[in-house]
Amino acid sequence: MKKSYFIALCVVAMTSCSAPGDELLSQDESNNLQTLNGSNSNILAKGGFRDNPDTPSPPPSGIWAKSFYLTNPIYGFYSDLTKKHLYNTSPLPSELPKSYPGLSYYFMERLLGSADGPGPTITRWFHTGSNDLVLTTNPNELVGQSNWERRDLGTSYNGDEPGSFPIYRYFNSGKKTHFYTRDKNELGDGKDGYVYEGLAFYLKDSEPKAYRIHDGKFYQDNNTGALYVVFESTLRRIESAAVMNNLFSPLIVLPGNVDEELTGDRGPDITSSAQLVQNTNDGKIYMVDDGLYRYIPDTQTFNAFRFKESSIQRKPVRMMFVGKNIVKTY
User: Fold this and answer.
1) What's the structural domain count of the chain?
2) What is the DSSP string of 273-323?
3) Which of 1, 97, 299, 317 fits a 20 to 30 Å CA distance from 151?
4) Quick one: 90 and 183 in the same domain?
């Protein structure tokens, strides 16, 4: 019961350029534009990510990542000082419920499982006097009793789902602490002062799930150091850190093995020719993207892609090759 378990959690997460001038564009540039807008326009798309078994084939639109985050985990903690067991959805002892100083002696000893099922809600009741903690799917078990604080931790399984397993409940009246385990052999029908109170609920081991990445998320590849942004449901490589700093103010850049962890279409690289320009003739703000002026229609779109306001160049533009408006697609 006091045995510590080392739980390895794989978390992915997945963490001065010249601007186009005011003059008319040259004939060569015009020809290039016709090529890009014609039947050969897909030369900009530089391949795609491999499909993987966790997404449908062919994969859906957008950029997807395989998540290794635990979904609604329930962790078990124990203190040799207080001889009590506590439970929470965070692996950090500092986030345990506490009613007096000195409860920092807890260590995480187990992962009960994932509370992400179609069954009844699992409620955590914490007694601020005795520091007992009860997990139950009976919403009325401790209603109306004094000193019990309530918080829902997730939803249980019904027991008939593949991979689901029971969680067993025990109580030690001398130590005033409840204990939960997925291994009934640990205490059997009760021992060492613990009385078996029955099957509490069902959980499962958390399973990796594919999830879609929102536009405006930035990544740096662990292997190559290359920078990427999810841009209109494609993944676009940013040519350099200088280009990143000139265009964007990312909230966070997520590390990862981009080719292995993300699936979806690659868009064209964002190169040093990309600029943010406000046309003082009409007040509109554009991203100059591969030679095309692409209108950023509103503040929400501007902020979604974390464009850098201080990099906007304000000048009159008499003529421009106009591309599609920039759109937040997801």
Assistant:
1) 2
2) T-EEEEETTT--EEEEETTEEEE--SHHHHHHTTB-GGG-EEE--S---B-
3) 1
4) yes
Asked if the structure places residue 208 within a domain, the reply is: no
Element (H, E) at 246: helix 241-247
pLDDT single digits (tens) 235-258: 999 999 999 999 999 988 888 889
CB atoms closer than 10 angstroms to residue 193: 14
Report the C-alpha gap between 92 and 169 in whole angstroms. 23
Among residues 156, 174, 203, the one where a domain terminates is 203
Are 77 and 199 in a shared domain?
A: yes
- Alpha-carbon span 91 to 139, nearest angstrom: 25
Last residue of a domain, one of 154, 174, 203: 203
Query: pLDDT at position 251, please?
Result: 83
Please, which residues have CB within 8 angstroms of residue 270's CB and are 6 or more apart in sequence? 229, 231, 236, 237, 238, 239, 243, 247, 289
Domain annotation covers residue 2: no
Q: Which residue has the tokens 């998540």?
A: 67
Q: What pLDDT shows up at residue 62? A: 93
Considering the entire predicted model, what is its pTM? 0.51
Q: What is the dihedral of CA 124, 129, 131, 132, to 10 degrees?
A: -60
Q: What is the pLDDT of residue 110?
A: 94
Q: Which residue range forms the structural domain that includes residue 190?
A: 73-203
**What are the residue ranges in the chain where pLDDT is below 50?**
1-58
295 and 237 within one domain: yes
Give the Cα-Cα-Cα angle 250, 255, 258 (nearest 5 degrees): 105
Q: 319, 290 in Cβ contact below 8 A?
A: no
- The terminus-to-terminus CA distance of the chain in angstroms comes to 46
* pLDDT tens, position by position, 181-237: 999 999 999 999 999 999 999 999 977 778 899 999 999 999 999 999 999 999 999
pLDDT tens profile 295-310: 999 999 999 999 999 9
- The answer as to whether 3 is a domain residue is no
